[in-house]
Amino acid sequence: MKPAPFEYHAPPTAREAVDLLAQLGDSAKVIAGGQSLVPVLAMRLAVFDHLIDIGRIETLRGIREADGQVWAGAGTTEAEIGQSGLICAQVPLLARATPLIGHFQIRNRGTIGGSLAHADASAEYPAVVMTLDGIVHALSPRGERTIAAGEFFTGIWSTALAPDELLTGVSFPAARSRQGFAIEELARRRGDFAVAGAAVAVELDSGDVITRASIGLFGLGPTPLRAAGAEASVTGAAARARGGEQIGRAAVADLDSVPADRHGTADYRKKVGAAMVTRAWERAVREATGE
Question: Which domains, and CATH codes, for the chain?
Answer without folding.
Answer: 7-52 (3.30.43.10), 66-173 (3.30.465.10), 179-288 (3.30.390.50)
